[in-house]
Write a structure and sequence with these properties.
Layout lengths: L1 H23 L4 H12 L19 H5 L2 H15 L5 H36 L6 H10 L5 H10 L5 H33 L4 H30 L5 H19 L3 E3 L2 E3 L3 H15 L3 H11 L1 H13 L9 H28 L4 H10 L5 H9 L6 H29 L23 E7 L8 E7 L3 H17 L25 H6 L8 E6 L2 E6 L17 E3 L2 E3 L1 H8 L2
Antiparallel strand pairs: 1-2, 3-4, 5-6, 7-8
Helix pairs in contact: 1-2, 1-13, 2-13, 2-17, 4-10, 4-11, 4-13, 5-6, 5-8, 5-14, 6-8, 6-17, 7-8, 7-17, 8-9, 8-15, 9-10, 9-11, 10-11, 14-15, 14-17, 15-17, 16-17
């Protein structure tokens, strides 16, 4: 027991320290966690023979013994992704997400099949036809965990991010169907017969059972949640239900000749979807749950890094097939996303960058590869998938960050610290007026950032812009978000997460309540005499062109 606790604590500490080093070179934290796990794994620190004391992992079998942590982390990740399937989001992007999710997966499978089947005809001794067809279906799977962690770390927000989170969730169901069909065909090629029950009925039944179980769990969670008013108890209840759905999703049983099982990701995702759509305070619970499960997520990625098997790098045939697999899968994801996004009339940025964000691949693909091990050369399928996971997990999060940044949905926030108030590094550097369609608003929101310009020029820019807005008749008009929230039994109402993110409303932000006729207006509380730029209160502040400016901001502007 002490060995288990020491190993878990050191893994968590190593992941956190690695994230500090990754920040210096602007890499996503997910990549640093994976590298930390790789260093703690059986090919580096584990070789020192200290795993008996809890220092590192001595073997891959020891890493696999922590599998319950991986399952629990995936459950929480899927539960949080379910929050993206709100009815308001489905009405605006649901059709696009379903179309893109299916088309890009099918196109990826077809391209990988073509490439590997061609390799089979060129070198039949390298890969069999059955394995080539199976790998094509495995290529459709995408890793939701790494994608979600990048989105959360950099607070990515926008239409591309919303569509991305929906697509990676849909990928699990689509990939399951494609894999079951392809694996059935592969078995038929080897055994000379095809089983319609395993090819068609069982995957469809698994999807239906998973969605039904998740919907029932989400509805029951909402029924019980109203009996608790303490935030900590309501969060504990949510954690209990996620653990319950993770446990239930591991159950499998037989009904005659039919094998019945559940998909962990689909069950937990459906639980989160149903709960978030019927519970008026689900936003608050999701935020608190995100913070609570952060250590579990870090452990998940450290363990994923420790599971990476470097022995496969010694097999040149695995490297050859893996290179073809990675190249054709990357082409399939990027081209498939582009074609499907263009067909559904998505914006140019989504068409250009969505495919890159879908490249990460991990747990779901490894599960499919484990099933495919029953093929005659199933070990080759597993090794190729392990090689691709090694590449995609290390490079995928960085590519996702680059794509979201290029799409304008990751904005630099400067250095942040929980010890001091967050002040962006670029204060008093730019005056840029831009229109950005936020995650939930249907009309533009104006963002004003300080500019490199003399104070007089800054004042002129503000005055000129405000006059233009007044001429358009857009000044002092409220913008409809299209979101409706109910008041609970305690008189509380939850502000949508999209608004809190776009308006930079943190947990401790104070809001003032105003009444304007029959309207209730919420505004950020600002003490009288506070600086319009940094928010600090200083008796030496001066008024200029209608703006309150403190001495510190005056010095910064004067130094430009």
């Amino acid at each position: 027991m002490e060995q288990l606790l020491i190993c878990m604590s050191l893994s968590l500490i190593a992941g956190l320290l690695a994230s500090r080093a990754a920040k210096a070179v602007r890499l996503p934290a997910v990549t640093s966690y994976l590298v930390a796990g790789l260093l703690l794994g059986p090919f580096f620190l584990g070789r020192l023979g200290l795993s008996g004391w809890g220092f590192g992992f001595g073997s891959l079998a020891q890493v696999e013994s922590y599998g319950i942590i991986t399952q629990v982390a995936l459950g929480f990740i899927a539960f949080v992704i379910g929050n993206e399937f709100r009815l308001s989001a489905l009405e605006s992007m649901g059709r696009q997400a379903i179309t893109v999710g299916i088309l890009q997966a099918v196109i990826t499978t077809v391209l990988v099949d073509i490439a590997l089947v061609a390799l089979h005809f060129a070198r039949p001794d390298v890969i069999s036809m059955a394995s080539a067809i199976t790998l094509g279906a495995i290529a459709s799977a995408t890793a939701p965990a790494a994608t979600l962690m990048v989105v959360k770390q950099y607070k990515a927000s926008g239409p591309l991010t919303r569509l991305l989170l929906m697509v990676v969730a849909i990928d699990d169901a689509v990939g399951l169907v494609l894999f079951s069909a392809s694996y059935g065909v592969a078995n038929a090629l080897e055994q000379g017969r095809i089983d319609p029950v395993s090819v068609v009925l069982e995957p469809l039944l698994e999807i239906a059972l998973s969605l039904a179980l998740g919907a029932a769990a989400g509805y029951l969670l909402n029924l019980l949640e109203v009996y608790f008013h303490s935030r900590s108890k309501r969060m504990s209840l949510s954690v209990a239900f996620v653990l319950l759905t993770v446990g239930l999703s591991m159950v499998s049983f037989e009904v005659g000749p039919i094998h019945c099982s559940f998909s962990l990701l689909l069950v937990c995702m459906m639980t989160g979807t149903v709960f978030c759509n019927i519970c008026p305070t689900s936003d608050e619970l999701m935020d608190r749950l995100d913070r609570w499960v952060s250590p579990v997520n870090i452990l998940f990625f450290v363990l994923s890094g420790a599971e990476l098997d470097l022995n496969i790098l010694a097999n040149p045939m695995v490297l050859l097939i893996g290179a073809v697999y990675i190249a054709s899968r990357s082409l399939g994801k990027i081209s498939g996303s582009y074609v499907s996004c263009k067909a559904t009339r998505c914006s140019e940025k989504i068409q250009k960058y969505l495919g890159i964000t879908l490249l990460p691949q991990a747990g779901v693909a490894l599960g499919m590869a484990a099933t495919a091990a029953q093929l005659s050369d199933g070990h080759m399928v597993r090794n190729v998938v392990l090689f691709s996971v090694l590449v995609y997990e290390l490079a995928g999060p960085t590519l996702t960050k680059i794509a979201l940044t290029a799409a304008g949905e990751i904005r630099p926030e400067g250095r942040t610290s929980a010890r001091v108030e967050n002040k962006p590094e670029e204060v008093a550097q730019k005056v840029v007026f831009c229109r950005n369609v936020t995650q939930s608003l249907t009309n533009p929101v104006i963002f004003c950032i300080l500019s490199i310009a003399p104070l007089e020029q800054f004042s002129y820019c503000v005055t000129d812009w405000l006059s233009q807005e007044k001429d358009k008749g857009e000044w002092n008009t409220m913008k409809s978000t299209g979101i409706v929230r109910g008041i609970d039994a305690l008189g509380r109402i939850v502000l949508p997460k999209e608004l809190r993110t776009s308006m930079h409303l943190d947990t401790d932000t104070k809001l003032e309540i105003f009444v304007d006729g029959d309207s209730i207006v919420l505004k950020k509380h600002r003490p009288a005499g506070s600086c319009d730029f940094c928010g600090e209160v200083d008796e030496s502040s001066v008024q200029f062109a209608g703006y309150c400016i403190c001495p510190a901001c005056r010095r910064k502007i004067g130094a430009l």
